[in-house]
Specification:
The chain has 297 residues and is α/β, with parallel strands linked by helices. 40% of the residues lie in helices and 14% in strands. It contains ten helices and twelve strands. The strands form three sheets. The protein has an eight-stranded parallel barrel with strand order 1-2-3-4-6-8-9-12. Helix 2 links the parallel strand 2 and strand 3. The longest helix has 20 residues. The two termini are 34 Å apart.
Length: 297
Amino acid sequence: MILGSHVKMSGKKMMLGSVEEALSYGANTFMIYTGAPQNTRRRKIEELKIPEALELMKAHNIDVNNVVIHAPYIMNLANPSLEKRQFAIDFLTSEIERSAAMEATQIVLHPGSAVGLDREEAIRWIGEGLNKVIANTKDLKVKIALETMAGKGNEVGRTFEELKAIIDLVADKTRVSVCFDTCHTHDSGYDIKENFKGVLEEFDKVVGKKYLSVFHINDSKNIKGARKDRHENLGFGEIGFKALVDIIYDEEFKAIPKILETPYIGDNPPYKEEIEMIKNRRFESDLKTKLLKQEGE
């Protein structure tokens, strides 16, 4: 089982600190941003403590091929503005170059938002943008993992058909994959709680299971089909602990990283406790009380 969570990359330790945080949770993988997801400010690659991080990962048997980068939210390959689409292409190119320098093999991307309200045109622009980014980074092996989206606002990627339409436009399909987010897929209307196998069969028919490269494991605060994208801690939401654990332990996807993005409880990251719950296959209903009490102490 390849299991981890989102971790920070900040301060003087940067990526080395990210590895240390992941290890403190009992994880054997992790996901990071290369910098703040809301802006373009980035530290120099030489300042990221990459060699030290890789050395610590090797010492603790964390395979760098399972490390996941998440692209920032400020890019929109589907923006009607040519200038803003070009910004997205340029910045995603630089993020992939940074990911490669960190020896990561995939970067998760929210496909885009059809702010011009024409979804077919938005999908075409996303495909065009991805082709340009891939051409810009043709010598790199970093895959762009398109994330399944909840359908909030004008998000593209709410349905498997939209993801397929984007992938169909990508010339080099070895450089594109899919990140399956459990909260998003549930919120978009797929019944992963009662019929995960059926949902995966549909995904396989439409997109192809061969494209799955990472799972985001999150419970949801919302009922199925709400299209709101509000993550919840494992077992405290509408999907439920058993359904999520069954997804994590599915033998077919054993070799694919599973990343927790569940919300902090107060000021406390819940990942150590949630990873323990997953490994023990036992839901702790007092998790939030324990962490809030810990915060008070």
